[in-house]
């Protein structure tokens, strides 16, 4: 059992290293992922921020959690794209003839997404600090924030795996993130939900982005998180588990 486990972990390490080399050779992927969220942050803080009433003095502090989710949603779309291209190039067919764990290839892409999105998040937080973002969060709060963002990344990445394995065209694989990127705009990410019309508010308050944003925002400001943390974790873990099951089914069907 220990030998099989070590073999599996070793295969994942090889796949992760291979995927990360592609990322480092093409840094435009990370640059592209970070540019759009940073542009949104600049636009809303310096153009719209003065007209938006959030009950806080520093709008960048209010805005940052939603920007991080948009960055992660954008970044996971590259997982779907890379998987689709691997399918088209017959990469998975080649691995079938090799002594390698079948799911190691998928895990390599998933962990690559986790690492690359972590880099993007770090860059965006640094830009936010330059723009005036400040946090009273302690070490434990930052660890909780990192955990939530990691679970959110894994949930979206496994969903992207389904799309990458099932898409019929490169455009279909790349368009995966569009609706997810749009969701933070109908949440508490940019404005309080109390300012929304009743129907929109009902949707905003009961979709996953609002709970995740509110939990991260409370942790960043050193406030009591309350039920938002557990709701956010439930959404992330639930989506991740369901997506993982369907991703493995799609992988077995295609490969």
Automatic annotation (TrEMBL):
<dbReference type="InterPro" id="IPR000412">
    <property type="entry name" value="ABC_2_transport"/>
</dbReference>
<feature type="domain" description="ABC transmembrane type-2">
    <location>
        <begin position="28"/>
        <end position="254"/>
    </location>
</feature>
<keyword id="KW-1003">Cell membrane</keyword>
<keyword id="KW-0813">Transport</keyword>
<keyword id="KW-0472">Membrane</keyword>
<keyword id="KW-0812">Transmembrane</keyword>
<dbReference type="Pfam" id="PF01061">
    <property type="entry name" value="ABC2_membrane"/>
</dbReference>
<feature type="transmembrane region" description="Helical">
    <location>
        <begin position="30"/>
        <end position="52"/>
    </location>
</feature>
<feature type="transmembrane region" description="Helical">
    <location>
        <begin position="106"/>
        <end position="133"/>
    </location>
</feature>
<dbReference type="InterPro" id="IPR047817">
    <property type="entry name" value="ABC2_TM_bact-type"/>
</dbReference>
<comment type="similarity">
    <text>Belongs to the ABC-2 integral membrane protein family.</text>
</comment>
<feature type="transmembrane region" description="Helical">
    <location>
        <begin position="229"/>
        <end position="247"/>
    </location>
</feature>
<keyword id="KW-1133">Transmembrane helix</keyword>
<dbReference type="InterPro" id="IPR013525">
    <property type="entry name" value="ABC2_TM"/>
</dbReference>
<feature type="transmembrane region" description="Helical">
    <location>
        <begin position="64"/>
        <end position="85"/>
    </location>
</feature>
<dbReference type="InterPro" id="IPR051784">
    <property type="entry name" value="Nod_factor_ABC_transporter"/>
</dbReference>
<protein>
    <recommendedName>
        <fullName>Transport permease protein</fullName>
    </recommendedName>
</protein>
<feature type="transmembrane region" description="Helical">
    <location>
        <begin position="139"/>
        <end position="163"/>
    </location>
</feature>
<feature type="transmembrane region" description="Helical">
    <location>
        <begin position="175"/>
        <end position="193"/>
    </location>
</feature>
């Amino acid at each position: 059992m220990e030998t099989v486990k070590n073999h599996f972990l070793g295969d994942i390490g090889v796949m992760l290293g291979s995927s990360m080399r592609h990322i480092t050779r093409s840094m435009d992927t990370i640059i592209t992922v970070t540019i759009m969220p940073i542009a949104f942050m600049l636009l809303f803080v310096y153009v719209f921020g003065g007209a938006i009433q959030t009950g806080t003095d520093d709008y960048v502090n209010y805005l940052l959690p939603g920007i991080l989710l948009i960055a992660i949603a954008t970044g996971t779309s590259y997982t779907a794209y890379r998987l689709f291209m691997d399918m088209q190039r017959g990469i998975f067919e080649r691995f079938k003839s090799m002594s390698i764990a079948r799911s190691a290839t998928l895990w390599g892409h998933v962990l690559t997404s986790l690492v690359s999105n972590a880099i993007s998040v770090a860059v965006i937080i640094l830009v936010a600090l330059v723009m005036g973002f400040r946090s009273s969060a302690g070490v434990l709060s930052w660890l909780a924030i990192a955990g939530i963002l990691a679970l959110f990344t894994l949930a979206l990445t496994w969903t992207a795996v389904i799309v990458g394995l099932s898409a019929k065209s490169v455009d279909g694989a790349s368009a995966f993130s569009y609706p997810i990127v749009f969701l933070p705009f109908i949440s508490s990410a940019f404005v309080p939900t109390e300012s929304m019309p009743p129907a929109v508010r009902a949707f905003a308050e009961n979709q996953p982005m609002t709970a995740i944003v509110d939990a991260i925002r409370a942790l960043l400001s050193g406030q009591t998180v309350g039920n938002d943390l557990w709701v956010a974790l439930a959404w992330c873990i639930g989506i991740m588990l369901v997506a993982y099951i369907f991703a493995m089914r799609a992988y077995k069907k295609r490969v």
